[in-house]
Amino acid sequence: xxxxxxxxxxxxxxxxxxxxxxxxxxxxxxxxxxxxxxxxxxxxxxxxxxxxxxxxxxxxxxxxxxxxxxxxxxxxxxxxxxxxxxxxxxxxxxxxxxxxxxxxxxxxxxxxxxxxxxxxxxxxxxxxxxxxxxxxxxxxxxxxxxxxxxxxxxxxxxxxxxxxxxxxxxxxxxxxxxxxxxxxxxxxxxxxxxxxxxxxxxxxxxxxxxxxxxxxxxxxxxxxxxxxxxxxxxxxxxxxxxxxxxxxxxxxxxxxxxxxxxxxxxxxxxxxxxxxxxxxxxxxxxxxxxxxxxxxxxxxxxxxxxxxxxxxxxxxxxxxxxxxxxxxxxxx
Length: 332
Prior knowledge:
Blueprint: E1 9-12, H1 19-24, H2 26-37, E2 44-48, H3 53-69, E3 73-81, H4 82-91, H5 95-121, E4 126-132, H6 134-141, E5 147-151, H7 157-163, H8 166-173, E6 178-181, E7 191-195, H9 200-212, E8 217-224, H10 229-234, H11 239-262, E9 272-278, H12 282-293, E10 297-301, H13 307-323, E11 327-331
Parallel strand pairs: 1-8, 1-10, 2-3, 2-5, 3-4, 5-6, 7-8, 8-9, 10-11
Antiparallel strand pairs: 6-11
Helix pairs in contact: 3-5, 4-5, 6-8
């Protein structure tokens, strides 16, 4: 595999930010992984919209994914928040009439958003309006979907700051992959830059990245750090000895990368490229490589090899939600 990277989609085998939640769902995630192994491509998706700019980007991206994968089950969901409907009913006397009128107007807006996406992508999604709590309803509606698609930023700025954004809350609780869209969908994802920890969950991330855009190049990125490197400096170990220690760590990573690639079945070899980087500040390295390669998607997994990795690397996902200059796919 050559280390070359024109423009890329970044795939990372990462971890969940909440160890309790992640490990409780491990069995369900494993079942989801086994189910994916039996799939040749994506078959269904759910895109949730609140009519924000990023939601419009998400709907267009969902249309492009449907087109690339010949998906016939694409659903555009809007959740009419129960709290908003109750507040509306309390504010006027004819509560039933005003609720029905409000839902009628929302459905009209949803149909218009679907129509706009169809004009942009040539794919017509199914409109679906449901009342309830936003995150709960999205998760319930995604039962039959292979993937959930969301806009990165919503209209609820204050709520996002106080209780967490909708994407972050969905990611924590979902056993399905979640695609968070922050960029205008002008074309299908073109290439993939892959950062992996060589776990089975990294392999699932690779398979999802390969499926979400079947023609994209896949760039695998592994970030390694020699254990106790900083302590060695304080212990008076020479820089030459530390550098030799780093070379050994890199050599081990290269062997693991080769083994990982050899087990990536069903993906054309000419789509796969590898990159190995040294460093301890993973999020910064990822953002740097996204910018360097021109990645239009980064894919991260919620789970890794060990609980320590789960605790350490899971925060990277939250960091990328805020700072990644491209779309983000979080897999199981």
